Fold:
Amino acid sequence: MVFSLKGNGVLTSSRVWVGTPQPFFYAWNLRKPIVYAQRQPLREPEKAALTLGYIPLTDCAPLVVALEQGFFAQYGLDVVLSREPSWANIRDKVGIGLLDGAQMLAPMPLASSLGADALAQPMVVGLSLGLNGNAITVSQALYRRLVEQDPHAMANEPITARALRKLLAADRAEGREPPTFAMVYPYSSHNYLLRYWLAAGGVDPDRDVRLIVVPPPRMVEQLEAGRIDGYCVGEPWNSAAVASGVGRVLLASCDIWNNHPEKVFSVTQSWAEQHPATHQALIMALIEACRWLDDPINRLKAASLLAQPDYLDTPESVVLAGLTGRFRQAAGEGERYLPDFHVFHRYAANFPWLSHAEWIVTQMLRWHQIEAPADWPRRVRAVYRPDLYRAAADALGLPCPAFERKSEGAHDEPWQPDDASPTLGPDRFIDDRIYDERDPLLYLHSFSPDPGAANGDVRS
Structure:
């Protein structure tokens, strides 16, 4: 297959080919191949020529791999990948039909469907693209001040916001302005996990610090220019700050909530209804790409693909850090091994859990982004569609969870819910809280309405 650039950051394939899948895919531990049934024949896609959007992040890898390794083409799809500068661009272009679908932040389709976002439109999620993948990075100047304020708290892992809480109290007494933290989009795991980390340490995200939105590729330059003091973003933009000496990683997002939902593949509801066979073909191709990515042998090749100017335009060594789990939190320091920093397929990572969607809604409610609609469980189910994933997985001969919701926070190690379901990953929260999928609102009401007062108000 031949690839060429079209216009501004758009990659396309010049022909479509139909191939035979490999008979097996290797498990993460590489001890033996896992054999699956051959894929079922599909109906002809209603639309073969597609344009899909992505943001230059390491976890756009499933789309890149599906194109470069021919998985889209195996399903008769001629895909163009369109690199977009921001999540707002993704939202708008999918909404008005300039993109057929896109990599999205897991909360984005929910926000759009619930009428919370600027472009309110019913969306559909039939596939999660992976788990984890973000980190919180701060400037060298802020890091030094945090260590001076509370060296003990900064020496423990995972680092909590306790030192920041003390620093804010001292700065307030001296009349200093609060620090500015950036996240990538208001409806994002980055926003909710950054807020979760701050609040768990007694810092009120809405009153004690300033939160702003910065597109992922611009985070490092904004930190270097001193316009922000820290950020929560996906890779490779944490490792890029470390490699350049501009910033220092405090903790990975898996330290805040291990195996949290991150990116999804989403289309509008009307597009899904008009193109059901095309949609299933896309989901199947992306599942195969995610399985390919979770073979550690393929991570090196994936880093080489992603580093290209057409995609991340970043040194391969920087991309490798998150992909291989050999994560460096500061220049000149040793590596921290985080094998689950990026999870693309194992732990049922591609299953669109209703409980993940409902947890996201609890955070929208917690931070006053929405008011609870009376029928919000039904509306969530209209967005997150396990039935679409199951149809694609069945056609691939893949096992699926036997249920659509699960608890979070009780597991330090991989766990097996039952004999029929895939193994699920560790799911601890940084504050050891338990999310009971049977009562999301009870979980929501367990949080203090005043995070600052919970651990000593920094405004006093």
Remarks:
- Residues 1-38, 456-460 have pLDDT under 50 and may be disordered.
- The longest helix spans residues 276-293.
- Residues 158 and 255 are 6 Å apart (CA to CA).
- The longest strand covers residues 49-54.
